């Protein structure tokens, strides 16, 4: 049995059953091994950013890793941006990066590079396989590292380790250690701080604390103790919709964020970190809370967040029967008509969202209203790119659709961001994935126009405009999608958009709507 076969067997023994891939020559023995393993689903991405972004979306929806297969250092480098997003989302992921045979490295062939150096900033764990005999222990270590706590791991597979005789192997399922016990000192300190500042406490939930069952507990605490429940600026995954507790997302614009948090005296973190400004701006703070705000960590990533919230509820004397504030009916707002707008799209999607669907939001500025409206929509999962690296939306939706083939996936996509990984549409077509992509076609990097104002530039000239706008020539998303094998149509009125959305939601398979705004 060669090393590549052993690697596959270890992955399959530990429920890693999907490999998103863009292989090259160094990985051919691993590709051949995958061909002998019918239990592994292999999904081709035409660009490595699609591969790593799809693995991120898959992991967020399954809570377990997929494998990626990348070709040497340059292939890994092409996938780093969405590895960055996955790392910020705490997504489990196992990247397998092929490399030259160990004895070929000293020759400095054209594709030779420092793979470990490239991988380290975007990985929580990196290891090079020493030889065929090291494949099983190294792969088992990678699986363990991807899950304790969940994060991005990178395993470098030299070609001679893949093709070499690994000897007999007996891979089994790795037994993971349970999460640490709830820190009762942190629970008591948090409860005391909440009692001391009624109405001036905020609680940020993320990770497992943003799932419906944990949100219910957080909502009970919020209602009983006058605690404001918050979500991070960029949300890895949150279960939303009517009948569920709906945290308020901290806004991206720094002035709005500091205004929201300005009167908070105590900020409680459940699974996340203290929120900070995305960038430094002249004359504006980096921290979003006041400097005298007390920041407490109830539980961190890797802890049992559900149990920590239960312990806090008990410490505060809140009964499990306590009612929480749930989102109910939509605001009384007439359906818009005429020319299509960002808000009209957000309202239409929220009202028509299928039950148990998945929303992948990379519309950046254009869909900001959707999150608030989603509290009243049908129950669903909501995800965003978490690291600020654009180009995650189409791949994330692709991975989510593979993870949950029985659920409709809606991708809210900005036109500029979508062009980074437009190749993901081809994978959606090839795999016949049930994804509706809605492209907010404003033909500009709208967020950068806002950032120019944030740094004090209120009027721009031709050179700046040419770097921020996408209108000469205008992108034709209908043609781009059809060229990738995805059916598509364009809407520039509310009525046309509603009709296209109804059609796309009524059938299975990939469909793209270019929403011209």
Automatic annotation (TrEMBL):
Signal sequence range: none
Pfam families, alphabetized: TPP_enzyme_C, TPP_enzyme_N
Thiamine pyrophosphate enzyme TPP-binding domain boundaries: 375-514
Keyword terms, alphabetized: Thiamine pyrophosphate
Organism superkingdom: Bacteria
Record-annotated Thiamine pyrophosphate enzyme N-terminal TPP-binding domain positions: 1-106
Keyword Kinase recorded: no
Entry coiled-coil feature ranges: none
Keyword Repeat: no
InterPro entries named in the record: THDP-binding (IPR029061), Thiamin_PyroP_enz_TPP-bd_dom (IPR012001), TPP_enz (IPR045229), TPP_enzyme_TPP-bd (IPR011766)
Family membership: Belongs to the TPP enzyme family.
NCBIfam families hit by this protein: PRK07586.1
Stated name of the protein: Acetolactate synthase large subunit
Classification lineage: Bacteria, Pseudomonadati, Pseudomonadota, Alphaproteobacteria, Hyphomicrobiales
